[in-house]
Amino acid sequence: MDAMEQPYVIVGASLAGAKAAGALRSEGYEGPLELIGAETELPYERPPLSKGFLQGKTPRGEFDVHPAEWYAEHGVTLRLGTAVTALDPDAHTVTLDDGSRRSFAKLLLATGASPRPLPVPGGDRPDVLTLRSAADSIRLRERLTPGARIVVVGAGWIGLEVAAAARAAEAGVTVLEAAELPLLRVLGPEVARVFADLHRAHGVDLRFGAKVAAVEDGGVRLGDGTLVPADTVVVGVGIVPNTGLAEAAGLAVDNGVRTDAHLRTSHPDVFAAGDVANAFHPFYGRPIRVEHWANALNQPATAAKSMLGQDAVYDRVPYFFTDQYDLGMEYTGYAEPGGYDRVVFRGDVAAREFVAFWLADGRVLAGMNVNVWDVVDPIRALILGGRPVDEARLTDPDVPLEELAG
Question: Which domains, from first to last, does the chain contain?
Fold first, then answer.
């Protein structure tokens, strides 16, 4: 089989993988195309797993990336329940878990990430759960019952969304967080307090500065000897990019699979997208790995174009969202701890209807709109404009953001 006959192969039947298959076809690629994934289900989007699906509001089939018939109709060979165990970029082959080998002309790694385990005695008990797959969400949902004692370890996005779902199910919830506030590294203290207040208002027992020592019969043992009673422990202490395949293949790996702005790895015929990709971002001038739905949704279009030889770069400003109780939020931009001077607000913070802006030298680095809608585009424009803004006008709700971004 010569290179022209060899298929394009996508490793990871995820949102990123399925979107890449669609993008390759829409960009005119007509050759053989294979999508290989270890999960047995059709590729699906993950945000509902900690939101609507976990609460029983969103039916399972509603968040499939494509309907089942789409793959055959578009000539995509979908291999589910199949793990890729080895990658040889120079030989242009992958090895599957049945020992067979598949050749490829170009390959996309969309292998995603895995939840960090809880590295304490008892961290692998059957009543200790993580949330990454639809099966995980179903297993957890069965335990969210009135009066159940749910302990969430980690006050990040997943942990807080699980806490909200558990409270909606009338379960008792304790959140254990090592830092002084939830989401502290992501949002900083000014905005993190909003989420602390939100969860306390809904009856969540938030315990900060908590060190988990062990999980044992009856609950979670803290470093100070306290036993926090639990029927179920949910671990949400971050995810780790699935780089094992790339690393063993000799690709450049550093907090994910390193790629250029075209999403090309250190091998010219291998690309990466989604949670696993640490991609050079032209606007920020350095690699960035963002563990959010928007990257998995949007990077595949760039990867597909690059695989087909087009001069495409991925330069979208990071974006993510959350829904907790009656709070809906969108965050646009990128502001690292220590990378901004201050946070300013427009709107009513106490009523949880506001926009927060992270500033450095008067420039907007990021904006987060809470229960305020249709402002993502002007926030993005403010960020990309890169110019100092008038803070008094920025914080005045009567001044349209479009005027400031203009």
Answer: 8-114+240-307 (3.50.50.60), 117-235 (3.50.50.60), 326-405 (3.30.390.30)
